[in-house]
């Protein structure tokens, strides 16, 4: 099992450009999440998807959109990148809350720089 | 708003000693807590979790203690090794059925040989 995979690993964008970060999991998890991590800070939730076909905002959703393409894949889109979106982005997945264990598993991250 | 915070941003220990990393949480309704380890350049890695109906849970070389009275969580690492050097995050589940987490800012554990 690869677990949670993310592409790309690194990306540099110019202000105003758009891009999509891809995430996939092979653990048959219902729930998926997108976080950002800024230097010296913990992870902050951008969007999450409790199950296929549903998405909801987290703490810091402004400037982002998401798509839960199917049970495996959850993408994050930046429509018009801004320097404030320079960060490391992590995707995570978990079983549903009703499961006996529902810890979140994280991908390796995408390091995004917006100039 | 609700928050999870850590008392010590950096902890330096000698190899072989025990380490204790502390965390305070503010949401008394949170019922699930997790500790993650993050090595440089990698994603967070699950270490151990505990539910609010428990006071203590043990894993391999790690123990998590939960004190609901004072809203305090701690991670104890026995016989700390150089490979334990990383940033450790506590997180609380505040999202009820949706399993959303609030993360603390992290504690850097530096193990001296």
Largest sheet of chain B: 6 strands, mixed
Poorly predicted regions of chain A are none
* Helix and strand pattern of chain B: EEEEEEEEEEE
- How many runs of DSSP E, i.e. beta strands of chain B? 11
What is the percent of helical residues of chain B?
Answer: under 10%
Low-confidence stretches of chain B: none
Mean pLDDT of chain B, rounded to whole units? 89
Task: Give a structural overview.
- The complex is a heterodimer of chains A (115) and B (113).
- Chain A is mainly beta and 115 residues long.
- Chain A contains no helices and eleven strands.
- Chain A has strands at 4-7, 10-13, 19-25, 31-37, 43-49, 56-57, 64-68, 74-78, 87-94, 105-106, 110-114.
- Chain A is globular.
- In chain A, 37% of the residues are buried.
- In chain B, 0% of the residues lie in helices and 53% in strands.
- Chain B is globular, with a radius of gyration of 13 Å.
- Classes of the chains: A mainly beta (115), B mainly beta (113).
Can you describe this structure in just a few lines?
Chain A is mainly β. Chain A has strands spanning about 5, 10-15, 20-25, 30-35, 45-50, 55, 65-70, 75-80, 85-95, 105, 110-115.
List the helices and strands and how they pair.
The complex is a heterodimer of chains A (115) and B (113).
Chain A lengths: L3 E4 L2 E4 L5 E7 L5 E7 L5 E7 L6 E2 L6 E5 L5 E5 L8 E8 L10 E2 L3 E5 L1
Parallel strand pairs in A: 2-11
Antiparallel strand pairs in A: 1-3, 3-8, 4-5, 4-9, 5-6, 7-8, 9-10, 9-11
Chain B lengths: L3 E2 L4 E5 L4 E7 L6 E7 L6 E7 L4 E3 L3 E6 L4 E6 L8 E8 L7 E3 L3 E6 L1
Parallel strand pairs in B: 2-11
Antiparallel strand pairs in B: 1-3, 3-8, 4-5, 4-9, 6-7, 7-8, 9-10, 9-11
Features:
heterodimer, A: 115 residues, mainly beta, four-stranded antiparallel β-sheet, 11 strands, 49% strand, B: mainly beta, five-stranded antiparallel β-sheet, 0% helix, 53% strand
């Amino acid at each position: 099992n690869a677990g949670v995979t993310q592409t790309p690993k690194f990306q540099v964008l110019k202000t105003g450009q758009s891009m999509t970060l891809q995430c996939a999991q092979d653990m048959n998890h219902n729930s998926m999440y997108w976080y950002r991590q800024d230097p010296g800070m913990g992870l902050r939730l951008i969007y999450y998807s409790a199950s296929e076909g549903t998405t909801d905002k987290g703490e810091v959703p402004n400037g982002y959109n998401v798509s839960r393409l199917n049970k495996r894949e959850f993408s994050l889109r930046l429509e018009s990148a801004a320097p404030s979106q320079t960060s490391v982005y992590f995707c995570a997945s978990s079983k549903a809350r009703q499961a006996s264990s529902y810890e979140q598993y994280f991908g390796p991250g995408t390091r995004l720089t917006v100039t | 708003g609700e928050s999870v915070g850590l008392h010590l941003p950096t902890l330096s220990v000698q190899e072989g000693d025990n380490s204790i990393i502390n965390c305070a949480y503010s949401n008394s309704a949170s019922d699930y807590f997790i500790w993650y380890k993050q090595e440089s350049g990698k994603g967070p890695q699950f270490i151990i979790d505990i539910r609010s109906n428990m006071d203590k849970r043990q894993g391999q070389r790690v123990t998590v203690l939960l004190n609901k009275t004072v809203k305090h969580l701690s991670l104890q690492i026995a016989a700390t090794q150089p490979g334990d050097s990383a940033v450790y995050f506590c997180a609380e589940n505040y999202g009820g059925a949706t399993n959303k987490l609030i993360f603390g800012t992290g504690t850097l554990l530096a193990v001296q040989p």
